[in-house]
Amino acid sequence: MDLILVSLLMRTQARLRGHETWTRSELKAYQADALRRLRAHAYARSPFYRRFHAGLADTPLRDLPVLTKALLMEHFDELVTDRRVRLADLRAHVAAGTGQRYLDHYRVCATSGSSGHPALVLFDPVEWATFLASFGRLRGWAGVPIGLRNRLRTGSVASDLPWHMSVQGALTFTTLGPLMPTLRLGATEPLTRIAQRLEAWQPQILGGYPSILRMLADEQLAGRLHLTPRFVLSGSEVLTAEARRRIEEAWGPVLFEGYGTTEGGGGNAAECERHEGMHLFEDLIIAEIVDEDNHPVPPGEQGAKVLMTVLSSRTLPLIRYEIDDRLRLTGTTGTCGRPFALIHSIEGRTDEIMTLPAETGGETAVHPVLFHRLFDPLPINGWQVVQQPDHIRVLLSGARGATDSAALASAVADALTAHGAIAPRIDVLHVDTIPRTAAGKAPLIKAAQPASPGTGPAMAGEGRRESRGHHHPPDAGDGAHGACRPSGRDGRPLRGEGIHGPD
Questions:
Q1: Residue 64 predicted with pLDDT over 90
Q2: Which one of 23, 54, 330, 349 is most buried, counting C-beta atoms within 10 A?
Q3: How far apart, in whole angstroms, are the C-alpha atoms of residue 485 and residue 482?
């Protein structure tokens, strides 16, 4: 057991619990002081920020320039505050896949690259303890805070990409031994194998992607799975109203939703015991909900993106970092007494869960991770998988060197077959650029959506409706289906202290 990390984690959790008793005014005062300290640190140690914010030292946050992922990665070596860190070395470290800390000090996480270009984020021990405590807050609000008195068996079904934040977090919790006995399963494993292993493990806490949790709930309702979790934790994708209904039908009102991003330092929002929506962790981040032109939108209106300032970031300071998640706030803090703003809804990206005929009959869901594992390592600038009625089209752009299209098509078919699906025809095409949506996004996976009665299959993004809930950053992949819920679980209007967004 890593006793130093355990000590840091316990102290951080205690500090965060203290923040939950603040008034809204006390929270705002803390944000202002934390922001001042973050900016002073960045200006003292980051050559990039000294130029990027030149002459703006006293400028309010809302008037500072926006940091995009492209800028972050282009100026990475100058943006980090440890002069030993070099992006080329960091990429080589990640590619080596050793699982060791970079420079024997930093934990490294990579985004899933939903835009086609993954970002790398470093965490020193203090930042990593905050990362873990942010996810621990969700457990605490569900009634099972991390600690020796809550050593409940946990089953997690999420990404198995080695540098994904869910894997790095799960591996760390595994090293904590008695604090969190965990069975970690990859979302790309066949559903039957996932169900069998969970059945044997009998987790008291079940966590995973909403798409996986819904499939497990369907197995439970069909009598093929027999789990009795005390709590179900959902994140990293949109949690649709229908998925929530099925999960609660299977296991009761034990579902808690979380929202996190890799760049945002881990957990960014979570549902509390009142189930009135997700509270933003405003003691860890400042989230500006803005339109396409970076102008603030008021509570009740859907934003086009989030400009996130990570108050705990020191190794890689992130100030007004652009994240393409569409949030809408309620304008209240809810009835629980906590000072944190409530999220009304988060509109996800196009649905990336692909459904194909199963070899054993019926259908099987193919998670995006399967395609990430195939295409992320390729020497290309971008890729997209498009599901058509009778085939799958793979688009590749900016190939660096020869790419064997026939071999790649065969690899896709083999992966789908290994997953238990009947693989359709796979067409691999080289294009100049990856097609983008009207919003300017280039979704990696465009899965055919279930057809309405009397209609043909619809492509993801056509006729999409908002859904309460979300994926990650981190990385986060998303889909949306179902209706927003601007009220609590029981349908009553939300109450609580009014808010007016970040200053």
A1: yes
A2: 349
A3: 10
